[in-house]
Design goal:
The complex is a heterodimer of chains A (218) and B (87).
Chain A (H helix, E strand, L loop, with lengths): L1 E4 L8 H14 L4 E5 L5 H8 L9 E3 L4 H13 L2 E5 L6 H9 L2 E6 L3 H21 L5 E5 L6 H11 L4 E2 L8 H7 L11 H26 L1
Parallel strand pairs in A: 1-4, 1-5, 2-3, 2-4, 5-6, 6-7
Chain B lengths: L8 H4 L15 H11 L17 H14 L3 H14 L1
The chains are: A alpha/beta (218), B mainly alpha (87).
Chain lengths: 218, 87
């Protein structure tokens, strides 16, 4: 199963979400890998810092081209979960990442700028659905969430797009930044609050997978 | 080689049981063709998206015909509507 984590805007936490979800999958005994398509290759660097004795999360750095779909096809055959860490652009690679997804996760910050950028992303997502001629299950994930009126309004706006919003959200915590430089996920880190919210997100993702399984079995 | 005890086994249950994952397949050629279509020059003119309700029987026949002719729904519907409006 291919889980694409992508959005139009940079700095929304794509790599953080990809790495942390991969760690949760690895600890739940899934064979999981990350495909790092982001030009920053931060997931690739993160994997270099990861302790070999922790559950394995191999990371493959791939660039766009004809080989992208083929390589992801091979990885999808040898892993239960392939997480694609996308690139923040409306380029062909983003379209391909959306098309390849069995489940699309769109991290977004609760800000007006992010909502504006998301309008264009949704157009691209609809184009991809039209070309693929099937629904691409997608969920927004609110990152660096706050208990403000703006955050609530952003959630309402996202829900009105017709794309689901995960019930769980992530807060702006130093634990994410500390864990990444140690090659860890917050599930493996000392901050219990960060760990708890990541577990909640992981449960939401598993529920989304259950829904997809039901749909595919029809 | 035995893995180092990270002390995480006690919290493993918090992640919940493993959910089965169905194997999915990728049609490389279709994916790449779809990507090209999204970024084709034709999309420079403004487009409008419409929704049409079809009966299940018609929809199935439509899909079978599309597959047999190697056409996309977009291509077939555009051709039909362009023919219709040009009459």
């Amino acid at each position: 199963m291919i889980i694409s984590v992508t959005s139009l805007k940079g700095g929304v936490g794509k790599s953080t979400v990809a790495q942390n979800l991969a760690v949760c999958f690895a600890h739940s005994e899934y064979s999981v890998c990350i495909v790092d398509v982001d030009t920053n290759q931060s997931a690739l660097r993160w994997s270099g810092l990861r302790d070999e004795e922790l559950p394995a999360v191999p990371v493959y750095g791939l660039t766009d081209g004809m080989e992208l779909s083929k390589n992801i096809k091979h990885l999808n055959q040898s892993h239960e979960i392939v997480i694609i860490d996308g690139t923040p652009s409306l380029s062909q690679v983003t379209s391909k990442i959306i098309l390849l997804a069995d489940l699309l996760i769109i991290p977004i910050l609760p800000s007006g700028l992010d909502i504006w950028a998301t309008e264009k992303f949704i157009d691209r997502y609809r184009d991809a659905e039209q070309q693929k001629e099937e629904t691409i299950p997608a969920y927004f994930l609110i990152n660096q969430n706050q208990t403000t009126n703006l955050s609530r309004e952003v959630k309402e706006v996202l829900e009105a797009t017709g794309i689901s919003v995960f019930n769980s959200s992530l807060r702006n915590r130093i634990a994410y930044r500390e864990a990444v430089i140690k090659g860890l996920g917050v599930y493996e880190y000392k901050d219990e609050k960060a760990k708890a919210e990541m577990v909640e997100l992981f449960k939401d993702v598993k529920n989304a997978i259950k829904k997809i399984n039901k749909g595919k079995s029809k | 080689m035995t893995k180092k005890d990270t002390g995480l086994k006690s919290t493993l249950s918090s992640l919940g049981p493993k959910v089965p994952v169905k194997k999915t397949s990728i049609d490389v050629e279709k994916t790449d063709a779809a990507t090209k279509n999204i970024h084709s020059e034709k999309k420079t003119s403004k487009t409008y998206r419409q929704t049409v309700d079809l009966t299940e029987d018609t929809f199935k026949k439509f899909k079978i015909k599309l597959i047999s002719e190697g056409k996309t729904m977009q291509q077939a519907l555009s051709e039909l509507i362009e023919d219709y409006v040009s009459q």
